[in-house]
Structures are given as C-alpha cells and as structure tokens.
Amino acid sequence: MDESAWDGTLSASEFSASAQAFAEKWKLNNPAYPPWTWVKSLKVPIFATIKVEEGYLSLENVCIVKSNDDEVASCVEGEASLCDKEDEESTDSATLVQTSSGNDNAQPYYFDFHIIYSASFRVPVLYFRAYCSDGRSLGLNEIESVLPANSAKVLLESKWTFITQEEHPYLNRPWCKLHPCGSSDWMKLLFQAVEQAMELYLVSWFSVVGPVIGLSIPIQMLKEP
Amino acid sequence: MKEAQEFVWMGAIPLQIHLHESEVTTVPPPPPALILAPRIGYLPLLLPLIKPYFSSTLPPGVDTVWFEYKGLPLKWYIPTGVLFDLLCAEPERPWNLTIHFRGYPSHLLIPCEGEDSVKWNFINSLKEADYIINGNCKNVMHMSQSDQLELWNSVVNANLEAFIRSSSKLKSGTIEDDYASKSSSSSQKSQKMIGEADTSVQTKTGKVPVRLYVWNVSADFGDMEDAPPIDSWDRISYVNRPLEIHREEGKCFTLHDAIKTLLPELFGKKRKPSEGENDEQSFGSEEETKNNRMTEEGEGNLSLPLETVSTADDDPEIKLLRIQGIEPKLETPISWVANHLRHPENFLHVCVYVKIPSAKSL
Fold first, then answer.
1. In chain A, where are the structural domains located?
2. Is B301 in CB contact (< 8 Å) with chain A?
3. What is the ipTM of this complex?
4. What is the pTM of this model?
C-alpha cells in the first residue's frame, strides 16, 4: 500500500475483513471480556438470491463501574478486569457490585457497543448506549459522569461535535455516537508510524477510541501474529 | 440552476396542526393551527408560530415538543417536505398532524432541545455532505461561527438570497453534467441549463450525497389513497450511502441507474443457483468486484461477481419515486436531479416505494 497516498479510510469490504481480524485478536488476547460478535444486518430486505454482506460488530452487557478514585473499571458480569492495573481497589467478581471502596455513589452501568461502518466517511464509527441494572436508559449527562475524566472534559467543551445522540443506523432507536470526522486523519498518522496490513485497521482504530469509553486493549493485540 | 432552486425553496406544505386531546385543558378545545411549512425546513422550527395557538390550554409543566402523524412519532431531523412525500402516499392537503407538548417518546426519538438541536444536526449533515463531495470537512470547518449562523438562519427563514450569499463561502461543488462538459458534443444531446456555465466546480470524489427512504409496499394497491399508513419506522429502510457515479462513454447515468446502484440488495444482478458453492467467502475484496464490469454497482458491499439472471415479472419494482414533491422521470440524468433538487445541506433526499415480490424475498 502506498502510505503517502492513503487517506486513512477503508472500504466496506475492508471493514468486514478488518472486523473479523479484530474480533479474533480480541478473543485471543482479552479473555476476561465476552467476544465481539458480527451482526449481519440488512438495510433493505434482500431480494431473491442476491448476496450482500453488511453488518457491524457488537459487544453488549459490558459493566462499567466508576470507583471513588476516578478510575473507570470495566468488567463483565461475573468477571473483572481493570483499565488501570495500579488501582488497588481491584475487585473480584464477588464484590464488584458492592464496590469495596465503600463509595455509595458508584453504581454499575451497563454498556452496549456497536462498531458500524460509515459509508459516508469510510471509517468505523462507535455507537454505544448505557443503562442501569433496572434497564433504564442513561441520558448523555449520566454517561458523561461515567466516562474517563479526559473524555468528560472534551465532551463538555464541544457538546455537539464529540459525542452526540443519534439514531442507530439499523435499530431505529437513539444511541450515542462518537463523531467520525477526524478519524481518517489520525488513522493515517497511526499507519504512517507503523506500517501495517489493512486488516489491522480496526485494532489500531480501537486503540485510540476504546480508552475514550473506558475500554482499553492489551498491547499484544497491536502486534501482528 | 437558479430557477429550479427557487422552486425548491418556495415549496411549502400546508399543515393543520391539532393539539393532542390529552393536553387540552379548556372547553371548547382550541381550533387547529394552520401553518404553511417550508419543504426544506424542519418541524421544530415552526414552534414559535404554533405555540400561540395552544399556550393558554396546555397543562402545567415543561414543554417537550414532538409531532405525530396517524400515531407515528415524526423524526424531527428529516426535512418537512421529505416527511410529507414519504408518509402521505396520496398527498393530503392540508396535512393533518398532531402536536404534543408533553410525554416525549425518548425511547424512540432522539432528544430535541429546540432550534439548537436542529441547527447542529443540519451542520453535521452539511459536514457529512462536504466529506462525501470533497473527501474532507474543511469547507464547513473553516466557516466562521457567524457564517455558519448566517447560513443556518437563511434555512430557518427559507431565504434563498441569503442562502446563496452565505453558501458562496462553502464550495459545495456540483456534479459535472455529462453533456455540458463536452463542448463539441452534438446539440441534440445537450441539456444545457441556465447558469450551467457558472457551475464549474466539479465534485472531487465524483460522489453524491443521497439519503433514500425506502418503503416496501407489500400489498398491491391501485390507488395511492388505499396505501396502508406507515405505523412504525421499522417499515422504512433508511439508506444513507453516497452515490458513486459510473460514467460510460456515450451513456447517461440516469436517476434509475442511481437507484439501482444504491440498492444492490434489490437491483443487483442475481446469482445463478449453480454458483452457490462460492458462498463461503464472505469478505470479498473490492478488486474482484471492480474487475467484473460491475458498472451498475455502487460502493462495495457486494461480495462476489454476479451474473445476470433477469426475470422481469418477478423483479422488484419501483412503484413511486418522489423528490421535493415531484416524481421525476427515471430517465432524467442524475446530475440534473442532484444539482437542482438537493436540500440546503447538500443531500438529495429520495422517497422510494418499492414492491418486492414477497415469494422471493428473504
């Protein structure tokens, strides 16, 4: 690939291939989390034997708890793995919901994450939503309070251009979306720094986007097999 | 160019807006509000005109305004004209809508905090169109806040003069007309528009921002009046894909070609049964599809080369196609349609009713 000419974007089929590679590496290197699944989704009912592959990556029911140290711990029901390993409040599955820090305000929120291809911007876009254990959806304000401190600050400063509430491209419901406008620029930089196969696009992309919503990936994922 | 644009900007829908009965606290109930809504505008922007009709009768509380047509909550970020073209198979004049000031269905609709929400949604769409046309959002990003505001206000007021002034700072580009560019081509082919000579900026990417609203009309109805009402947004397929125009020598890329390109699920070439074994490769490469003369296919999400198996009677059919309230002939060059009928944010919004033979659909 001619690095200098590449604009940082990828095609729909490259996205599908990259999604598969991402899901495989995640499964291998992030066993504490459930795997990302590929959801085949049809925009328009398929007619006859025409074959069209369109879909998105989905990771649901991720539990995120904010402890009193302002560190965001993300975990899965029944299992825990922390973003910041130095956090002494490492909770095991039994104490997760109680939050041993004794902070009454730390309650668990559940997140659903979807990585969806944008045909307009030719980049992946992260959609997410959050809800309480009783199923109630969280508003943008409440979600802000759970995000890592940096993200919350950026969100505050540019309310309309960073994370917005928009309709999910397939599900006809309001979700939160992380704006894709600058993605191709920083993807281009990332790929210039380290030459990589297109298949690793999503892994690199997620290494930047993940921490914004409190999901970091192990460094092993960034290495080519 | 300007004439057609004027018609588009002057287009308006007469609305008769009823307050939902649960919010009427006075006897007799207030009469409906009669409002003329610009096609290129958005319903929440009409609130200052509507509210005076009902403010004295509303129950106490905070306003969370939303509109509804025959039980369907209306998506406020879809231009009014598009909503009308899509939801009224048989145009209803005036269009009877219900307004609510309470009980916002936030599980269905994204929140709307007044004009600001609509403005930012508009600006984001403008950026998206900019990206599609130019490969980057620089034009919109470099507009000053006050220029953006001026542009927005011209839309709110449906003021074309002001819009033209503000948008001159935004190089929106036009699609090169197949015929205008070939100065030596014979005149019988030419469809020169007034002012076509001015539109010299060609889109860098050759892509057109399009938003399709597809309704599969399963029941066969003869008269539009008999069309069943749309009771859920799940029955509409919203397709937000840029249109990639493929030019072939001597051929015109028509509106029909465009729809077929944008809906490969319906109009792509069908596979012969014997090619079933090629199925398992679900992540095809773009290279393959390009090499197979797929002149009708758009942005690549088709995985395999396909062959034509055409059985006309069983094919999906376009029953109705509406843009800006008109039903353009399918043979119209897409360049004309896109350049003249686009909305202020540079998207072409197209409502399509299709009939998919149910026996064959999956």
1. 12-212
2. yes
3. 0.78
4. 0.81
